[in-house]
Amino acid sequence: EVQLVQSGAEVKKPGESLRISCKGSGYSFTTSWIGWVRQMPGKGLEWMGIVYPGDSDTTYSPSFQGQVTISADKSISTAYLQWSSLKASDTAMYFCVRRDGYNTIVYWGQGTLVTVSS
Amino acid sequence: QSALTQPPSASGSPGQSVTISCTGTSSDVGSYNYVSWYQQHPGKAPKLMIYEVTKRPSGVPDRFSGSKSGDTASLTVSGLQPEDEADYYCSSYAGSNIVIFGGGTKLTVL
Lengths: 118, 110
What we know:
The complex is a heterodimer.
Chain A: E1 3-6, E2 10-12, E3 18-25, E4 33-39, E5 45-52, E6 57-60, E7 69-73, E8 78-83, E9 92-100, E10 104-108, E11 112-116
Parallel strand pairs in A: 2-11
Antiparallel strand pairs in A: 1-3, 3-8, 4-5, 4-9, 5-6, 7-8, 9-10, 9-11
Chain B: E1 9-12, E2 18-23, E3 35-40, E4 47-50, E5 64-69, E6 72-77, E7 86-93, E8 99-101, E9 105-109
Parallel strand pairs in B: 1-9
Antiparallel strand pairs in B: 2-6, 3-4, 3-7, 5-6, 7-8, 7-9
């Protein structure tokens, strides 16, 4: 069974750093793209970027380029989304997803809620 | 790239049909047959309902169908049922490993 299991909810202060994780299982982690999707409170889905764990090839959506870092450690089948300096506007639910083909997302993580507040 | 354009809301009575549009550009929807539709119930992760414009994943009722004409894709839900009430999002491949989502449509079953 394919599973994407994300790390737990986080509460942080503005300016702090954070890394959240997404562990894949039940499939070949190195040969499937892993993406990240943001959903701000009461808002829609936003594509952030994607990583290919096999060679760490990464592509960012222009809106998120320079704002976050996406990476993967194939040795432990885990992808990461990290911030060096959080802002209140980073408060959102973050989903990791497995992208098949060009735009088919069957598998979603359960989501990680990140709250940034002073 | 800008978000794809969806109507904020749609509604229909049980048993009726409703169509949700998703308008992009010649750089995304118009260029690729890689449009997907997702259903999201409150507090849940989205669920894939349609991929590659018209294909339904296993387990998705055939009441859900997709189509595309030019820069606009559409999702049609026939025979509306109460459990179809949810938010629906379209997405399109936009080249260079980029995906774009629509703003979402809240479907209400009256």
